[in-house]
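User: Quick one: structure for sequence A, then sequence B.

Assistant: Sequence A:
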Amino acid sequence: MDPVFSAPPDSSLLDSFGRRTSYLRISVTDRCNFRCLYCRGRFDNTVSHSDILRYEEIEVLLGIAVQTGVRKVRFTGGEPFVRKGFMPFLERIREAFPTLALHVTSNGTMPADSAARLKALDVRVNLSLDTLRRDRFTAITGVDALSAVQANITRLLDLGVPFKLNAVAMRGVNDDELPDFLNLAFTLPVEVRFIELMPMGAGAERNSGLFLPARSLEDRARSLYKLLPLQPLQPDFGPARVWRLRDASGRLSTGTFGLISSVTRNACAACNRLRLTSEGNLRTCLFDNREYRLRPALRHPKLGPDAVREIWKRCVARKPVGAWLLDKDHPMRTPVTKRCMVSIGG
């Protein structure tokens, strides 16, 4: 194995607040076959092909990340499966990094054979699914594809691929479906999570009326089930608060229910993640507009990986605390970042 891909167990970088970086989210494309306005905004500007990181370059950057302590990577987009060659790329990554925890976030429209291949590669999946109703699905995404997503969910379940369902909570759009999502968590071996809508990009003002605090969903869930917290037993939930459900008869849920309170209850004190955009910009905090361009150094004939490694270390050292950038009373009509989520990496 190339030595750039190996790292001693104590190599994780610490930022100036003592947080250890071990998780990297990599956007392989800013393109998507959905047009969710809360994600993309009004415009459809995409990065040119020449400015997108080549798969070989992503592999090199991931090697640097592993060398500096990253133990978990999530490939996102856009929709990663719309990029040609994504699955063969995943297979190459698994071969190069056999002990790395591999995760993928998808809208669920991946090719039908993807579930079996993901299972073979030991890849965990997050599926974005904001509604269980066909008409709403089309209205939210602009695409009539709920049946395709449901078919892939069935394939993942049948094969035993670990996955989570993520729904962006939107007032007056899908909040009345909370009982239906809870029923999925009760009956299926999946984690169903609602995520607070974040004010990002040009659509922040337009979407401000859709914001629904996670506490409201928690209160409603408690009126339907007894919520049994799992964090003391299973600490690796990241920013999510996760519960098992118990119904009135005392039965326990097969799956779990989670809430991610990105706006009203941050997890910045324990943040361990970095983000790499599809054009090769490193973001150390989702709520920080600063980005560090790695692609020019990587492609420079006299710089290359050694220079990128040094930039990487310095960027991590300067990682801010997002809660200081996103005040708890931040007006939802004002974007916390200039870029939409699809251009950063969902």
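Sequence B:
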Amino acid sequence: MMNVSTILMAVFIATAYAAWPVVGSYSRASGGWIGTVVVIATGITVAICSAKQLISFPNTKAILLLLIAGAINGVAVYLYSCKVADVTVPTAAFVVTVAVFMSVIAPLLSWLLNGAIPTFYQTLGYGLAMSAIYFLNK
């Protein structure tokens, strides 16, 4: 169970994650510019916030795994930014669809990589999330 401060932090994170594609769409910049500027600003901010943690290096395996994940994420951010910039795609519905898919895919990946087995209620929630995707796209 999460405490109130963790839930409030989740609200802030969700707001930031939801805001940048909406602002990107509003800016009318191309998908490439939206993704590149947001990723650069994100990288600089993360580096500043985590400067003390960056002093010690993780092992080579961790670095390689993170580089692979980052490359895959880079392709995803580019594709996401292109859809956000596309005036024929409803930005809000697209952002929510991606977020809901993330809420279903994350526990599956965690189960595969970390052995974290979802509870009955979590599984029920994932099923409801999938129904939300159906309704969002009607």
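Residues 48 and 79 are 27 Å apart (CA to CA). The chain has a mean pLDDT of 92.

User: Thanks, that's what I needed.
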